[in-house]
Amino acid sequence: MSRRLLLGLAAALALGGGALANDADLCSDDAAEASVRAEACTRLVRTGKYRGNNLAAVHNNRGIAYRRMNDLARAHGDYTEAVRLNPQYDKAYYNRALAWSARNNPAQALEDYTKAIKINPRFADALNNRGLLWQAKGDGERALADFDDALRANPRMARTYFNRGNVHSEKGDLDRAITDYSEAIRLDPNDAEARLNRANAWQRKNDYDRAIADYAEAERLNPSDADIPFNRGNAHRLKGDYDKAIADYDAAIRLAPASAGPYNNRALAWHIKGDYDRAISDASEAIRIDPKYFRAYVNRGDSYFAKGETRRAVADYSEALRQSPQAASALKGRARALAALGDHERALNDLTELIRIDPRDHVAFNNRGAAWEGKGDVERAIADYSEALRLDPRYALAYRNRAAMLARNGALDRAIADYAQAIRFSPTDAIAFAQRGEIRQRTGDLDSALADYGEAIRLDPRHAPAYQHRAGLWQRKGNLGAARSDADQAVALAPERAEAYLVRANVARALGRIDDAIDDYQKALELKPSEDTRREAEAGIRKLTRTVSPWDE
Length: 553
Description:
The chain is mainly α.
């Protein structure tokens, strides 16, 4: 999100002086060419005819000219002489504060703005600029107080509404921010930056259509600002319109080819579209432009993980963490990748660190529960899933995960209750329906199990386990035709699952199709089955080969 801060203009003072009118006019003229103006002021100083406050005004005006010439040292000297000659000269303090800021000395600038405000409590520009300094120091309350006072002094200061809107935005008060940006736009309809920042606020409120409308108007006013298509791309991406997001990131890259952000965020869009190679390419370009851009390493790691290149994913997450040791997205990604590699111990370490950083991170507790599950520690898994649910009682995935562990412990009624909660909070979760069907089947509630399998398949017609388990249930109920149909579908959808072949072998055996049954049992054994599946397949083959043997035993 971009944020722009606006400073007020330097204040000049008109001079008089009879025969010196031409030089006096030039010295006071903000529109005059800076070097010409400085020379006119110098001639006035050299006449010796100016004293006290009038001479202070000459030094102040020459300071303005020097500042516009970027001769900050001479500008500073003139402002200092002006306040020496006239200690109540609020505009000279104000201008010296501008010079301090230009010389990267905010503490001295703050002091001079304060002196100017003490002399003139309604000095709106000084209040505005001091507010900016408080904001830069992270003191939002003092910044707001100064912006409020500036607007009381001058209610038509569009830039102060803009700046106050920025503080409200930083504090998360988006409604007030939008109100201030809107007033800035009303006072200055050509302010592209106010449109841009209001669009960013709408985006943070998830009002993507209003955000996109404001980005379009900001772009009309300032078509060369790469931040506009970049942020509009973010709005399109968050809205789910990935092609438009990519088009906007393309535009941002054309305007700012040396900026890493558009490449990184275009990588996010490619990743969501499933084009992991393009995502990796864009994230790599972001890293080339900015080797310390840890988010690009995280995003590239996510795409490597999605491609199955898990070790490369771990390497990218590790580099992100080297640069930003508490980056939650990197810890989460590496933990997931390590768990996929079977390194549950290191995954647990990363998840425990996530929880240390944020003890209210319900997702981290859920994921640590999954890591404990991977290590076979059911009780700790249940404890972490329970903590995730304490932190977020509507967390459907944690209910589903805890249900599976409760079922493994034999607490089938509690498991069914958790599945009911998972379905309540995520009614389109096909996995929860399928898994609850399995538990209901184990309890003998076959009709309810059939209903759950049917709903899982309706929600996800490609959910192979639902077909697989329903096939076994149809066989148990004696409907072998339906069992065969579901078993065929399970194998077609998941030809890598040994359990699908096992179920189809059992159905074929019940149908008297011995050769088909033997073939499927053997296929199940070829696919690295679980121990239970291996034993059942081997027993099925032994029994069937005895059945067809010509030998009399």
